[in-house]
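Project outcomes to date are best conveyed with an example. Our students and postdoctoral researchers have been running inverse folding experiments weekly, and each run begins with a structure described purely in tokens. The record below, which covers 292 residues, was selected by the lab manager from last quarter's runs and is presented without edits.
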């Protein structure tokens, strides 16, 4: 119900005559320019991302069971286009990698600290409606979209009992992007995105750790996420460069349980129960994008 009302509210705002009329303010332009075109008229952006990563898993009592922390780096890109009536289409993606520090343990309680490789691949499509208040050089764009996020944590052959994990999230980003022009080509911005979690899964290749175990795929149905991002866009050597510090957060609830056959004892099948514990992900980083 909340998801339906949120999405319905987005479209009511976008198409509301009253909301549109609020933006049509009588003004004396601060600069004679098309602010929407200056904001979204460049079709392609390519950039670099650096982020501090913190992933935590929790026991049922709330204590930390696993932590994974470190720096991650990678590339990102975005295509955007102005459609009719100032609707904005945006398609983007990123690929970041990191050699992070894992602190956890084995099922028998033996502690383990080791280096961990993480790779995140993410794709996001959005459509929004840009409104401009030219008297103050402001552009505000509410948007709605779809996001796919993949995290791959490959097996470390130097760690006994390690195995490959692949995690995916599917979510609906609902947000508002604002830009305020302080000069002809320089702007500052603030953006907030709420990620309405739809579903997720964790595939664990347990057979890599123990050949008597079968691989499992656990389903996740409950979670939440958001991102807050500031921006400074300015020309450098005739190219627009955007610096965007951000904070991003995910919290995913316990997954469903899965029964996994371990081995046969006579005619009896021995099995174990597995689940993915509640976990949080925090990322504090910066994007540096070049517009073409």
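After processing, the design step wrote out the following sequence:
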């Amino acid at each position: 119900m909340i998801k339906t009302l949120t999405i319905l509210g987005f479209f009511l705002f976008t198409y509301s005559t009253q909301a549109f009329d609020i933006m049509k303010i009588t003004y004396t332009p601060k600069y004679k320019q098309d602010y929407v075109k200056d904001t979204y008229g460049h079709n392609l952006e390519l950039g670099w991302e650096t982020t501090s990563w913190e992933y935590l898993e929790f026991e049922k009592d709330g204590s930390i069971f696993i932590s994974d922390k470190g720096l991650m780096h990678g590339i990102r890109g975005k295509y955007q286009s102005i459609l009719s009536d100032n609707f904005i289409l945006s398609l983007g993606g990123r690929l970041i990698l990191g050699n992070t520090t894992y602190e956890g343990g084995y099922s028998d309680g033996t502690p383990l600290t080791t280096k961990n490789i993480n790779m995140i691949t993410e794709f996001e499509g959005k459509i929004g409606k840009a409104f401009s208040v030219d008297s103050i050089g402001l552009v505000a764009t509410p948007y709605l979209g779809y996001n796919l996020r993949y995290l791959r944590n490959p097996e470390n052959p130097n760690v006994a009992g390690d195995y490959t994990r692949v995690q995916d999230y599917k979510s609906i980003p609902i947000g508002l992007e604002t830009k305020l022009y302080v000069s002809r080509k320089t702007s500052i911005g603030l953006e907030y995105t709420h990620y309405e979690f739809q579903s997720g899964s964790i595939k664990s290749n347990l057979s890599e750790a123990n050949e008597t175990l079968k691989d499992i795929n656990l389903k996740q149905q409950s979670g939440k996420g958001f991102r807050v991002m500031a921006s400074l866009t300015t020309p450098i050597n005739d190219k627009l460069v955007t610096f965007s510090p951000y904070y991003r957060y995910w919290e995913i609830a316990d997954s469903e349980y899965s029964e996994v056959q371990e081995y046969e004892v006579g005619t009896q099948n021995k099995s174990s129960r597995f689940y993915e514990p509640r976990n949080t992900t925090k990322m504090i980083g910066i994007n540096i994008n070049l517009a073409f």
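Residues 15-30 have pLDDT under 50 and may be disordered. Helices lie at 2-15, 17-23, 35-40. The training component of this project remains on track.
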